[in-house]
Amino acid sequence: MSVSKHQVMIKGVKDGLVFLLNDTCEWEILLQELQHKLEKTHQQILTGPIIHVHVKLGNREVTEEQKEEIRAIIRQKGNLLIQSIESDLRSQQEAGEPAPSITTLKGMIRSGQTLHHEGDLLYLGDVNPGGTITCTGNIYVMGSLRGMAHAGIDGDENAIIAASHMRPTQLRIAGIISRPPDEWGIEEAFMEFAYIKEGKMEIDKLHQLHRIVPESMMG
Questions:
Q1: CATH of domain 103-218
Q2: Minimal CB count within 10 Å: which of 3, 86, 151, 195?
C-alpha cells in the first residue's frame, strides 16, 4: 500500500464511519483525495440511509476555514451527517498536557493597523488610538492599550485582556463589548485586566487575577 495514495482512510465503527485524514500531506492533496473517495471509490458504502461521520485529523492543526472546507465536501453526500471534526492536538490539551506557550511580540500598533494572533499573546509595546489587536486567546499588553483589543475572538469567554496602562477605545472578549473606559469608575487605569463575569465585562487590578483564573491556566 503506497502511503502517498492513501491520505484518507474510511473505517466503519459501531455508530457510523470514521474518516482518518493523513496529517503529513499537503492540505490540497488531502481535499482532492477526500473528494475522489466520496465521488468514486467509496460510492457504494456512502449511499443509502443517514450515516454518522467522525473526522479525525491526527496531529494536524487546522483553522475553522479548513474545517469548513472538509464539511463542504462531505455535505455533498446528503446522507452523511458530520458528528465531529477532531484533532489529536486538541485532545492532548484537553487531557491536561501542556498547551502551546504564550507568544511574545514587540513593537507599536499605530492608527489603522491591526495585529491578529492565534493563541495567547504578550505584546511589548503600545497600541495607539485607532490601532487594533485581536487574539483567539488572552492578550497581555506591556505598555499602553489606547486602541481596540479583542480577546477570545472565536468565542472563548474565559479569555482576558490585561495592560500596564489600560485606556482603550473599546475592549471585546468573545462577543461581549465593554462600556467606555470613562464609565469604569477608575481614575488611573494601571495594571488592570478585563474579564467576563456572569455575561458582563468587568475590570479589576491585575493582582486580583489569581482569584479569577486557576493557576493551572496561568502556565
A1: 2.160.20.70
A2: 3
